[in-house]
Amino acid sequence: MRTQMATEAGRSTASSDDRALVGPNLLAVLDGVTEKPDNGCEHGVGWFADQLAAELLRSAHLGPAEALAAAIEQTRQLHGGCDLENPDSPSATVGLVQFQGDVLRYLVLGDATVVIDGKRGLEVVSDPAKHTAGADPAALGHALTGEVPLAEVRRVAILSDGAARAVDLFGLFDWGQALELMAANGPDDLIRKMRAVEKEDVKGVDWPREKISDDATIVYFDR
Ligand SMILES: [Zn+2]
User: Quick one: which of 60, 181, 197, 206 is 20 to 30 A from 101 by CA?
Assistant: First the structure.
């Protein structure tokens, strides 16, 4: 089994709010939602993504939803006196897979994407709705979850929306081709090819988009 990751900030002038996690039984991509002013938090989105990632690893012995709920609750405690009722309080989209015995479990909250290439074909899991993990574990009611027998899994990719746009916005590849590219050249090659297209359309004329380049992160696993 082999796991590779690639991550690149959307802008050279700001640090990325994406986080990639490669744990003993858990792979995940977290994408901190762009910080808004007056969000009631003295820590910031990068801090939030760091804490949520660390707590997720600490709870990796639990199932995906339970682990994320525990991570949200623990991170909530770490905020201290911040105003967590503020609607712009830091939050993140999450895509994760977990290996438990002979089963692969996945969870997607928000517009992260999990792609599973298995014996039954390709399964692409993502939710364009604006659901995120913030200060309230109740958000997990919106999570997309499922499981696949591990023996049927060939490859898995987890992508932040800034990376998945190579397929679902620019259409550079379909998902099958994207996985082939990652298998052959590594996930960094997908990000490289996407950045080249973004640079050719810096004004967002051919592909209208809010962020010309977004933080892009991929965790890729094959057997
Ligand atoms: Zn805070």
Answer: 181
Ligand 1 centroid distance, CA of 85 (Å): 11
Q: Which two tokens stand for residue 76?
A: 């909530």
C-alpha–C-alpha distance, residues 156 and 24, integer Å: 16
Phi, psi of 201 (to 5 degrees): -130, 55
Residue 184 exposed, middle or buried by CB count within 10 Å (0-12, 13-18, 19+):
exposed
Cα 38 to middle of ligand 1, angstroms: 12
Residue pLDDT, tens place only, 180-220: 999 999 999 999 999 999 999 999 999 999 999 999 999 99
Q: What separation in Å is there between the alpha carbon of 57 and the centre of ligand 1? A: 20
8 Å CB contact between 51 and 59: no
- Domains of the chain plus CATH, in order, are 2-203+214-222 (3.60.40.10)
**pLDDT tens-digit map of 142-188:** 999 999 999 999 999 999 999 999 999 999 999 999 999 999 999 99
What single-letter amino acid sits at 9? A
Q: Are 2 and 193 in contact (CB under 8 A)?
A: no
- Cα 27 to Cα 144: distance, rounded to the nearest angstrom: 16
Query: Ligand 1: distance of its center to the CA of 185 in Å?
Result: 39
